[in-house]
Design brief:
The structure holds two protein chains of two kinds.
Chain A lengths: L5 H5 L7 H7 E14 L2 E14 L3 E5 L6 H8 L7 E6 L2 E2 L5 H10 L1 E4 L11 H11 L4 H14 L15 H12 L6 E5 L7 H18 L2 E6 L10 E6 L2 E7 H12 L2
Parallel strand pairs in A: 3-8, 3-9, 6-7, 7-8
Antiparallel strand pairs in A: 1-2, 1-4, 4-5, 9-10
Chain B lengths: L1 H5 L18 H8 L3 H14 L1 H34 L2 H9 L4 H4 L1 H31 L2 H9 L4 H39 L3 H4 L2 H32 L2 H6 L3
Helix pairs in contact in B: 3-9, 4-7, 4-9, 4-11, 7-11, 9-11
The chains are: A alpha/beta, B mainly alpha.
Chain lengths: 263, 241
């Protein structure tokens, strides 16, 4: 149970100076454990996970459902707190944050993309993208301008006033991507972003995420069990039974993914 | 949740500032306080987006308040008819089956009971409609919280929404009820009624039913709005919609 060598494995990039090293790590999970009570039975969702993510990195978390992927994800997103261990976002322990600060963090620094899109169905695409900006206190006119710009960027400039029900799944996810970028987040969390999409649209969303990552210099973390998503990743973390079972860097991946891609 | 919060290991000093993402606590507090105008705009947007449901909630209030203001105003008119009319006119009217109720305390008590009951039904109606409106938006509230909406903001949005529905419903209901009472009295008593209508009494009744309507709405909306605001984002998200 103590095979967690991961932290030392992948923190090499900014290791030249101590301060530089610290600030280049945007997410750090230390021995994170979480137990849920399910019908009186304890379920160990996470059994001591160590993970750090560098600024601007694209990390995919792979694992079957029930591997603790979503739980880890919720913690990185400031939605849940660990029972044991610490999660640092930009070297701030999220357990030390009050509800105000957590909400602020979610609003300004984290962008979410969900498997089920989670758009507000009575609101137009434009209004959906405006929403996080309104929560952040940006004026309506400024929010409108920026939302229109973002929607144009994801290729929906002609669909601003359509309701989610009038958009295809791929288009809805594009709106969600635009919404995630609304407040210029440092981290974009994508929970199974291609889970509800067909192959081609899924690939388009992945390509979009990849291009946005380099354009906006955001850190992207995506939970997935979609192998297509791996090609875009700088690193893949394999989670099983609440623990990190394997990790692969881009170089190692190119061999295996290339192989998978050919058939 | 409280237990994890108590595990506050990180001191509040310089260490917290190590990162570049989070500003200090005060900046966060300031940025978290949205201007009132901004919140009102958001609530108004919410009402406009689901006009159908809003109209449904408001219509319950309209009916109850119309009944209340109609009863109060009819009573008031009948009372002042008796006060201002000469005895033979009253007798003549009563021979036609009018103004009897104003003289009969039992009938008036019964009418008040009916009004009370209508208010109660209205309260339950508002509570029900608001609970439904919250339940229907579980996923939405969770999403909003993920996107950074504060508890207070959610509470304010729901309360404002019901406040506007209540205000519109109350105004419409009061106008309809009092209008109907006046129309009926005009038909029953003829032109005599103009001498009996006292503007100050009418304004008093309008004010009373306005207060009653708003109290009713806020009372009905308080619990659902509070529940919505306290929902934890992941729990709210888990509900399939």
């Amino acid at each position: 149970m103590d095979d967690n060598t991961s932290q030392s494995d992948h923190s090499e990039p900014g290791a030249s100076g101590a301060s530089e090293f610290l600030s280049s790590i945007v997410i750090r999970a230390v021995n994170v454990k979480k137990v849920y009570q399910l019908g009186g039975q304890p379920v160990h969702a996470l059994r001591g996970v160590h993970l750090s993510v560098t600024r601007g990195e694209y990390v995919s978390i792979m694992g079957p459902s029930g591997s603790g992927k979503s739980t880890l994800f919720n913690m990185i997103g400031g939605l849940d707190k660990p029972d044991e261990g610490e999660v640092y976002i930009d070297e701030v322990d999220i357990a030390a944050l009050d509800n105000f600060e957590l909400a602020w963090l979610r609003c300004h620094k984290i962008g979410y993309i969900f498997q089920t899109f989670n758009l507000i169905h009575v609101a137009s695409a434009l209004e959906n993208v405006m929403m996080p900006m309104m929560f952040g206190g940006i004026t309506e006119t400024d929010a409108r301008d920026k939302a229109a710009e973002l929607l144009k960027r994801v290729g929906l400039g002609h669909r601003l006033f359509n309701k989610p029900s009038q958009l295809s799944g791929g288009q809805q996810q594009r709106v969600a991507v635009a919404r995630a970028l609304a407040n210029d987040p440092a981290i974009v969390l994508a929970d199974e972003p291609t889970g509800n999409l067909d192959l081609k649209t899924g690939e388009e969303i992945i390509a979009l995420l990849e291009s946005l990552k380099s354009e906006f210099e955001t850190t992207v973390i995506s939970a997935t069990h979609d192998h297509k998503m791996l090609a875009a990743s700088d690193r893949v973390v394999y989670l099983s039974d609440g623990q990190i079972s394997d990790e692969k860097s881009r170089e190692e991946l190119e061999i295996t993914v290339g192989h998978i891609g050919t058939h | 949740m409280t237990s994890t919060q108590q595990r506050d290991k990180q001191p509040d000093g310089a260490e917290r500032r190590a990162g570049r993402i989070l500003p200090d606590r005060e900046t966060i507090r300031n940025q978290a306080q949205l201007p009132r105008k901004h919140i009102i705009k958001m609530a108004w947007r919410n009402i406009r987006m689901r006009l159908g449901r809003s109209a449904l909630v408001a219509s319950g209030i309209v009916l109850a308040l119309a009944f209340l203001s109609y009863t109060l105003f009819s009573d008031a008119i009948a009372e002042s008819m008796i006060a201002v009319s000469p005895p033979h006119v009253i007798r003549e009217l009563q021979a036609n089956g009018l103004l009897l109720q104003a003289d009969d305390p039992d009938a008036r008590v019964a009418a008040r009971w009916m009004v009370g009951l209508a208010m109660l039904v209205c309260l339950v109606g508002v509570l029900n409609a608001m609970l439904l409106s919250v339940a229907e938006r579980f996923g939405e509230i969770g999403t909003m919280k993920c996107l950074g909406a504060m508890d207070m903001l959610i509470l304010k949005l729901f309360l404002l929404e019901s406040f506007v529905q209540g205000l519109v419903g109350t105004l419409l209901g009061t106008a309809a009820g009092m209008g109907l009472a006046l129309l009926e009295s005009r038909v029953s008593y003829g032109a005599l009624v103009w001498g009996a209508v006292d503007l100050r009494t009418a304004a008093g009744i309008a004010g009373a039913s306005l207060i009653a309507g708003m109290l009713l709405t806020v009372a009905g909306a308080l619990y659902p709005a509070w529940r919505a605001s306290k929902m934890r984002p992941i729990e709210a998200m888990r509900v399939e919609v």
